[in-house]
Amino acid sequence: KNEKNQMDLSQAPKVSLIMINGEEYPEKGKIAMINNIINSSTGSVTARADFDNKNNMLSSGSTGKIKLPTVYENAFEIPQSATIDLQGKKLVYILKDDNTVTTQPLNIIANTQHGFIIKNGLEPGTQIVLEGVTKIKDGMTISPVK
Q1: How far apart are the C-alpha atoms of 104 and 110, rounded to whole Å?
Q2: Domain-wise residue ranges, the chain
Q3: Class of domain 76-135
Q4: What 3-state DSSP class applies to 141?
Q5: Structure confidence by residue, pLDDT tens digits, 15-44
Q6: DSSP 87
Q7: Does residue 139 contact residue 96 with C-beta atoms inside 8 Å?
Q8: Which numeric CATH code is attached to 9-67?
Q9: Where are the strands (E) in 8-143, listed by range?
Q10: Distance (Å, rounded) from C-alpha 64 to C-alpha 71?
């Protein structure tokens, strides 16, 4: 966005293309257009990106998914398998100094292919339980493997 809070495509980062076969196109592209209408049933928007096509792999009018790079500052990524779901809230088990565990609610701001991006709820150096979360309970003493 520019100083008027408008999208400035000249400042947009390079993007990746996930082709219809699920593979990532080897060249990076540049966003050329973003439609401002959101599809209410899918939550998606239409965008066009231009890619070099040296090997003639792409044909005019082809579709795919565009991946925009995103940088999260002061955030953590944790594996989805390390979380538990309690009444619609995501929790993680925190390991305390005495090897007991306690649940901690998470503020999930984004999903990745492998995990959740957490903005609040964890501090640097916090140890979380990564495996066996379905077998433990709040206040339980465990023998952690580090």
Answers
A1: 18
A2: 9-67, 76-135
A3: mainly beta
A4: strand
A5: 999 998 889 999 999 988 888 888 889 888
A6: T
A7: no
A8: 2.40.30.170
A9: 16-19, 29-38, 45-51, 64-67, 76-79, 83-86, 89-95, 101-105, 107-111, 115-120
A10: 23
